[in-house]
């Protein structure tokens, strides 16, 4: 199964010649979930809440690329890799609850886990 992206311990994959509707698979901590590309909803499996949020945030930003990857995979062609969340100068990109983009600050403290979004969500 081709790997499309990897971030915060989450692996995003897609099977070749897979069934409709268009979807991708997210693996994290020994768990696997299936996410519908058009609706950006989990259709099978389960991930911890933080991982679910990160996957949907990432998929929202890369929905067109995911559609193209599914089209290519269905045609037995290798899909292109998709960039993980951008991290530069201590900032990562995520979206707010209202789906508008916001900048987040990475918390580099050894006692904290991952980036904290401006709207209070904390990454893994």
Strand content: 25-35%
Write down the secondary-structure element order.
Answer: EEEEEHHEEEE
Give the uncertain stretches in residue-range form: 94-124
The main sheet comes to: 5 strands, antiparallel
SS summary, helix count: 2
- DSSP E strands, number: 9
Rg: 15 Å
Mean pLDDT metric = 78
Secondary-structure-based class equals alpha+beta
Query: Judging from the principal axes of the Cα atoms, what is the shape?
Result: globular
Helical proportion, percent range: 10-25%
**Order of the strands making up the biggest sheet:** 1-2-3-4-5
Distance between termini? Answer: 24 Å
Question: What is the total number of structural domains?
Answer: 2
What does this entry look like structurally?
By secondary structure, the protein is of the alpha+beta class. It folds into two domains: 3-74, no CATH class; 87-116, no CATH class. It has two helices and nine strands. Strands 1-2-3-4-5 form a five-stranded antiparallel beta sheet. The longest helix is centred in the middle third of the chain and has 13 residues, at 49-61. Mean pLDDT is 78; it is low at 94-124.
Structure summarized in a few sentences:
The chain is α+β, with helices and mostly antiparallel strands and 124 residues long. It has 2 helices and 9 strands. The longest helix has 13 residues, at 49-61.
């Amino acid at each position: 199964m081709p790997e499309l992206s990897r971030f915060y311990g989450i692996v995003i994959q897609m099977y070749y010649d897979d069934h409709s509707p268009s979807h991708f698979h997210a693996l994290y901590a020994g768990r696997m979930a299936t996410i519908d590309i058009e609706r950006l909803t989990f259709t099978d499996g389960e991930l911890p809440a933080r991982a679910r949020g990160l996957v949907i945030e990432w998929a929202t930003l890369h929905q067109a690329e995911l559609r193209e990857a599914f089209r290519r995979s269905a045609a037995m062609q290798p899909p292109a890799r998709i960039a993980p969340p951008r991290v530069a100068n201590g900032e990562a990109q995520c979206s707010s609850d209202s789906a508008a983009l916001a900048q987040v600050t990475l918390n580099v403290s050894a006692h904290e886990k991952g980036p904290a979004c401006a709207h209070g969500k904390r990454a893994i």
